[in-house]
Every structure is written in C-alpha cells, then in structure tokens.
C-alpha cells in the first residue's frame, strides 16, 4: 500500500511537471493522411520538409501560431498552433516534441497531423494556409456523467457559442477565448475555444459551431470533453484546465499591416501572415448578433469538404449546391431517430430545419449502401437540372468522408404510400384527390420523358416515391436509379437490375432493357394501386391463391367485374373515371411494350372524355393459376409468369 501510494505520487509529480512545461508523453491523437501517399527517400520534398522541421521554432512567436513553408519545387508546408493561454516556452517545447514525434509516427507520409495536450502540429506538400478544414479530427470525453445531463449539455453549448463569437473577433495572431458558467447543483463549467488565426471570422465561427454541434452526439452529458479539428478546437470540463488569462494578449494591430519574417540568410524560408482586421472593442450584444447572422449566412455558403472527394467525383456545375456537413447535422439534430421520416434500401430520410427556418428532407445513404458514388452522382446531376412542380426539388448535397447526403425540399404530407395503405389516412383520399394525384404523376413523367432538356427514365416509380405536399399535389422523388437518355435515344441496356419487384417491366427484369415504356409499366401498376387501394404484391382475393394486383385486375376485367376491385371507400363517386383508370392501367402493363401508351398519350386519355381507349392485351407477369397457399405446389404456370415466384435476381436492389 505504501509503495503504491509512493509510485502514484511520483507519477503525479511527473505529469504535473510535464503539464507545466508543455511536454506531453505522447500524442493525444495523430493522423497519417494515407490518401496523400508517401514521399521517396532523398526526394526534394523530404529535403524541404527536413529543413522546415529543423528550423520551425527558431523564430520567437509570442502568440503561439507558426505558419511556414520551404522550397521552390515540391514545397513543404507546416503549421503549429499552441493553446492561447500557455507560455511561449511551454508552446515552443510542445511544438518541438511534436516535430520529433509526428514523423516517427507517420514515417515517409507526405501529410500528417497530431495533437498534444497544449498544441497542434501538421505538415503537407499542399498549402492549407487560410483554408477551413474539418477533417481529420477526433474527440475525447470524460467517463463520468453529469447529475443533470440535459441542463449540463445546454449550459456547455451556450458557453461555447458565446466564446465562439469572442474568438472569431480575434486577429491574425490569436483567435482564442476562455470562460466559465455555473448551473445549480453543479461545479463551475470551464470552456475554451480556438481557431487557427489564418481563418476569417466567418470560417472560424463556422468551424466552431460545427464542432459544438457534435457535443450532443459525442459528449452528451459528460462532465468533460474536447473536439479537435485542423482549423479549430474546443474543450470543456468541470476542472479549470486553463490559466486565468492568456499568457499575453495581443495589442491592437495598426490597420493595413502585414507581418513577415525571413529565415537565416541563404534560405528561401519565409512566413507571411495576412489577416482581416476586426475591432476588438465591440460590445457583447454585437458579438451575439454577429453569431446569429453568421449562422443564417452559412446555409448559403458552399460547403468545404474533403478535397479528395471533390477531385475524384468531378461533379460539375453543381458545386454551388454543396452544403456543409455540420450544417445538416445540426439541422437534423444529429440525424436523430425522432427526425427520421423513413428508410429505404439505400438509406434513411430525415426531417431537418436550417438556421433560416426552412424545412428540409435529408437523404442519408447507408455507408454500406449499394447506391455508391455512381448512383449518388446520378441523383445530383439529374435532379439538379430538373425543375417541375411535380418533381421534388433538390436543394443541395454534401460529401463528408464516407457520408453522402442529398438535401431536398420538405414535402409536408410524406408519401402516397402512407396515405393509400393506412386504414385511417386513406379516408382523406377521396376520388377527386386521387385523380389529381394521378394527373400530377403523369405530368411529372411527361416532363421527364419528353419536355425536359434531358430524357430521364426513373426506373423505380412506386407509391413510396410519390410525395404529397400540403395541398396533396404529387411530387416524384428518389432519382438514385434514374437513367439519362439523349433525346434521339429510345432504349438502354444494363446488366445491373435495380428496382422493386412487381413494378419492373418484364423486358427490364429478363433482359436488362429499359426505356420510357419501362416507366409506363411501373405507372400502370401504381395506377391500379391508387384505384383499388391494394398493394401489387399481395392482392386480397376470396380464393386461396397467391395473385398479383395486375393479375387480379386483369382477371376481373375479362369477366366484366372491374367495378368489384375499386376501393370500397370510393363508392358513390365517379365510377366512369375509376373504370377508365383501371382500363388505362391495364394498357400500361401490357406484355408487349410497343402496345403500351406513352405518358403523353396517358395524359390525353385522362383529360379527354371523347377519346376511345383500345382494348388491353394480356399483361406481363399475368398468372392464371399459381402456388397454392396451403400446399405450396406450383399449378399451371402461364407461359408468362412472375419471375419472383421462381427465383430472385442477385443484382436486384429492393427498395
């Protein structure tokens, strides 16, 4: 026991000494940026980097920000930032340790970054000076929870937001703020925020607000935590981890000042700091107002995300639609379950609200989703160029490492599926409303197929992909599987069959051939669902047979009993229009795609009372008699049967 106590005291003394001198035992966290590759031994970059590291701290800098480059060809860049309250000696000691340890931890890596207790250090072959960069990063938390987590986290958030406004008003030498707050029945809470001083006030605020938004996700209710990013850092704790005041406060800078320093003679080593001058004697009210204005303006800002993703994906002409990831994270409350609107095969959709009050719907692709880069780019490139009242409007998108987000207008009444197949909500779908929805879907498809600058095949038309706005107007959504055609192109072919069984045309399922007539088939199935209120994959019949809705509708049409399959809720309304819609639906699902009407013709059929409709021929996937539900034995398959009753297609992506 005595020896244990003695050893513990020795350890505490060592730790205290190292904290006092800024000498940590090791990195808290470091990241070797493998995407940037490795440099060749004895290369120009290695020579420039070695020289830069060996001379990095030879110049005295009072406020802890080092920002240097060296070399003409294959130049090396390095940056060091010390916490704003430590002494110059502790800062220099921390950086010297960083310079020694980081290359050892990341041997031959062109780019690396590391964080100590009191400083951050990074280097690369690219210039990151003046750029707001959010990754790589990390967070640490205290293992103990507050006795009142909700109030504690809110107090931390308010404190750090206040400090953010103060730090952003710093100049090109120091952007740092510390403070504390108290709440009932809790020790004081201490906080500190800091940006690299080469950030503008706007970027500093943007970076810190994004980090603050991560507290609820990563540090919620903890009595201490820190979040580190290349461009900014924040920390909070119930223990006072900082000095009462910064080691030295920079005096006001004279206007139009540029600070530069040269290396020893013979070196092409130089440092130039260009800053934005902001008066510091601003009252607290103005600071609070500034942060509110910046929060609103940041939603219009082009997001800055991982450089390598933008280079790889080469998304052209839509960069102005790019959102900052943390803006969307805040808007959706960290993609909380409470805000989830639904899930599909490729991802989940969340409701969110931007700082300007605008409601949005965010499609967040699963990280293991088979809708990868190609489908994601598809959806951006296609939808960004489409403008029609019956299509959901794309507001923007976001890349963040493995994250893929699509930001749409929020459509108040969710999907047609949630109304049509809900026992309570379906009561609000009278025939007038349904007919209007049908017309809206048709007009949207006519635009995609014929009227837009691009000819687009949706390939996944179904009830859950039809959204309804506040006035129950239909809006086609989800273009992740859409295909683009040239205007003189009539069909395409693919080996990857993506869609939903029961809605896919037979030529697409069997041979991978798709065209505008593929969408016509899907629309026909959807139209029958709207009129009958029965799902295509499980029609309700009185016989002990498994039967699709298409088969069920066709069988009743042939027997003259089309009225029997209409949704009972619609009795007493326009039976003529309902039967006409069943007729049109059966025309759209004919096996012979040449006999299917175009969507423009369907629109004409709906709006004309005098046009004569042709007699539909046998639909695709028509099943005369299929598997018995009791015996499971196959009976009398027609020559054209449903492949889903035989086998599954491995490339199929159910939605």
What do you see in this structure?
With 655 residues, the chain is α+β, with helices and mostly antiparallel strands. It has four domains: 20-124, Gnk2 domain, C-X8-C-X2-C motif (Killer Toxin P4, Chain A, 2-Layer Sandwich); 138-248 and 256-300, Gnk2 domain, C-X8-C-X2-C motif (Killer Toxin P4, Chain A, 2-Layer Sandwich); 307-409, Phosphorylase Kinase, domain 1; 416-645, Transferase(Phosphotransferase), domain 1 (Orthogonal Bundle), CATH 1.10.510.10. Helices cover 32% and strands 17% of the residues. The strands form seven sheets. A five-stranded antiparallel beta sheet has the order 1-4-5-3-2, with helices on one face. Strand 7 and strand 8 form a beta hairpin. Helix 4 runs antiparallel to helix 5, helix 5 (201-213) crosses helix 9 (325-331) and helix 12 (431-451) runs antiparallel to helix 14. It is elongated, with a radius of gyration of 32 Å. Mean pLDDT is 76; it is low at 1-25, 255-289, 291-317, 486-490, 541-545 and 623-655. The chain crosses the membrane at residues 272-297. It is found in: Membrane. Residues 335-621 form the Protein kinase domain. Residues 631-655 are annotated as: Disordered. It holds the Pfam family PK_Tyr_Ser-Thr.
């Amino acid at each position: 026991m005595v020896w244990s106590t003695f050893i513990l005291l020795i350890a505490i003394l060592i730790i205290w000494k190292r904290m006092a001198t800024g000498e940590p035992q090791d990195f808290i966290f470091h990241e070797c940026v493998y995407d940037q590759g490795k440099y060749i031994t004895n290369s120009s970059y290695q020579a420039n980097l070695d020289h830069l590291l060996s001379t990095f701290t030879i110049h005295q800098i009072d406020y802890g920000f080092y920002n240097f480059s060296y070399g003409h060809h294959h130049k090396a860049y390095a940056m060091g930032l010390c916490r704003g309250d430590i002494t110059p000696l502790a800062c220099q000691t921390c950086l010297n340790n960083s310079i020694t340890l980081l290359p050892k931890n990341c041997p031959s890596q062109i780019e690396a970054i590391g964080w100590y207790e009191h400083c951050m250090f990074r280097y690369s072959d690219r210039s990151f000076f003046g750029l707001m960069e959010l990754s790589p990063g990390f967070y640490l938390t205290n293992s103990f929870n507050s006795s009142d987590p909700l109030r504690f986290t809110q107090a931390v958030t308010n404190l750090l937001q206040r400090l953010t406004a103060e730090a952003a008003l710093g100049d090109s030498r120091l952007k740092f703020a510390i403070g504390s707050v108290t709440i009932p029945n809790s020790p004081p809470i201490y906080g500190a925020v800091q940006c690299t001083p080469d950030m503008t006030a706007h970027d500093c605020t943007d970076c810190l607000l994004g980090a603050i938004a991560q507290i609820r996700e990563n540090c919620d209710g903890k009595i201490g935590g820190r979040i580190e990013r290349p461009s900014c850092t924040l920390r909070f704790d119930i223990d006072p981890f900082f000095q009462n005041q910064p080691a030295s406060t920079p005096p006001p800078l004279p206007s139009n000042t540029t600070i530069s320093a040269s290396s020893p003679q013979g070196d092409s080593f130089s440092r130039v700091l260009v800053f934005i001058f902001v008066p510091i004697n601003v009252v607290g009210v103005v600071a609070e107002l500034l942060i509110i204005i910046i929060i609103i303006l940041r939603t219009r800002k082009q997001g800055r995300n991982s450089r390598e993703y933008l280079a790889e994906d080469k998304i052209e002409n839509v960069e102005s639609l790019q959102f900052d990831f943390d803006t969307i994270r805040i808007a959706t409350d960290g993609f909380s379950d409470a805000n989830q609107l639904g899930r599909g095969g490729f991802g989940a959709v969340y409701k969110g609200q931007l700082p300007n009050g605008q409601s949005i719907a965010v499609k967040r692709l699963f990280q293991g989703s088979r809708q990868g880069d190609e489908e994601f780019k598809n959806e951006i490139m296609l939808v960004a160029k489409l403008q029609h009242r019956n299509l959901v409007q794309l507001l923007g998108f976001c890349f963040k490492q493995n994250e893929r987000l699509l930001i749409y207008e929020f459509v108040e009444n969710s999907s047609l599926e949630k109304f049509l197949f809900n026992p309570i909500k379906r009561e609000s779908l009278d025939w007038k409303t349904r007919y209007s929805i049908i017309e809206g879907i048709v007009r949207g498809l006519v635009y995609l197929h014929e009227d837009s600058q691009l000819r687009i095949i949706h390939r996944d038309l179904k009830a859950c992909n039809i959204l309804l706005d506040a006035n129950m107007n239909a809006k086609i959504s989800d273009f992740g599987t859409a295909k683009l055609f040239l205007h003189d192109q009539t069909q395409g072919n693919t080996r990857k069959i993506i869609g939903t069984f029961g809605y896919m045309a037979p030529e697409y399922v069997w041979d991978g051939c798709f065209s505008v007539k593929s969408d016509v088939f899907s629309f026909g199935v959807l139209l029958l669902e709207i009129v009958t209120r029965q799902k295509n994959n499980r029609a309700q019949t009185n016989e002990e047979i498994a039967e699709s809705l298409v088969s069920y509708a066709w069988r009743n049409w042939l027997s003259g009993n089309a009225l029997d399959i209409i949704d009972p809720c619609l009795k007493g309304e326009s039976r003529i229009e309902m039967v006409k819609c069943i007729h049109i639906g059966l025309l759209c699902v004919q096996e012979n795609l040449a006999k299917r009407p175009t969507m423009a013709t369907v629109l004409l059929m709906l709006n004309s009372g005098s046009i004569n409709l042709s007699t539909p021929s046998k639909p695709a996937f028509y099943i005369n008699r299929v598997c018995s539900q009791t015996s499971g034995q196959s009976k009398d398959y027609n020559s054209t049967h449903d492949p889903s009753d035989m086998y599954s297609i491995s490339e199929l992506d159910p939605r």
